[in-house]
Amino acid sequence: MGAAVPQFKIKFGGRTLSLPTGSHLVGRMSDCFFTLDDDLTSRYHARLHVSASELQVEDLDSSNGTFLNGQRLPGRVKTQLVHGDNLKIGREIIAIISDASQAPVDDPMDSLRKTIGPHEETQFPSLISQLVQKSLNMGKIKEAERYALALTNQLMGSSVPVDHPTAKSCVVCLIALAQKSSSGVWLDRVFRLHAVHGWLMPDEIIEQLRGALDRITRIPGTGLEDYERTLREMARDGVDVPRGLMSTIAEFSDAFGGP
């Protein structure tokens, strides 16, 4: 089962990001699909609801509000978005694009480059994991998050296979962050990436996950549940999903999922 082609995009800060179908949180927290490092943005500020035919925004009773074309939206109400609309969340202005011909989607590495300082010499994507690990070793968690989040957000809306160098580097980054911070939030992102794209998780990633889970008691969010459901759907659609993978994900779900 392949991922559906995104029909909606958001443009912000000179970048364009495709929106996969589903519900996506926007806010300051690292487990949000779209993370904004802005003190005017609530931890969980808004939610984007994306289907094949429509895009809606829901303000989650944020402190400073969500604005559509200059008008503040009511809380906990889904509002339809169309091409050309502008959302204001905190200090960020987000343009809505519904026609793929209007703006090409950035290559994941191009968008990541824009988050990196001009004097940071890197070769993409082979060194991205090293950048994260270097930041973690220096205790610069926010810097590590900046690299990993930029890449993850782009990959959510980009169509790449599981063995693509960018995908592999991103997953390694997220697991490294989980191990260093003992936070299951980063593993939730690993599972969400695999669910969105219908990736079959390779054995080496399973083993890395087991190592990270030695220090983590719970995986928040719905990524693990979504991936388990995705694998079942893939199997029903005739995809050869390894039984070992199915049983391992079910084991993870029983041990680390749930509220």
TrEMBL record:
SUPFAM superfamilies (alphabetical): SMAD/FHA domain
Q: Which SMART domains match?
A: FHA (SM00240)
Q: Where would I find the FHA domain in this sequence?
A: 24-73
Show the Pfam families listed in the entry: FHA
Query: What InterPro entries does its record include?
Result: Cell_Proc_Reg/RNA_Proc (IPR050923), FHA_dom (IPR000253), SMAD_FHA_dom_sf (IPR008984)
Q: Please report the organism this UniProt entry assigns to the protein.
A: Nannocystis exedens
Top-level taxon of the source organism: Bacteria
Name of the protein: FHA domain-containing protein
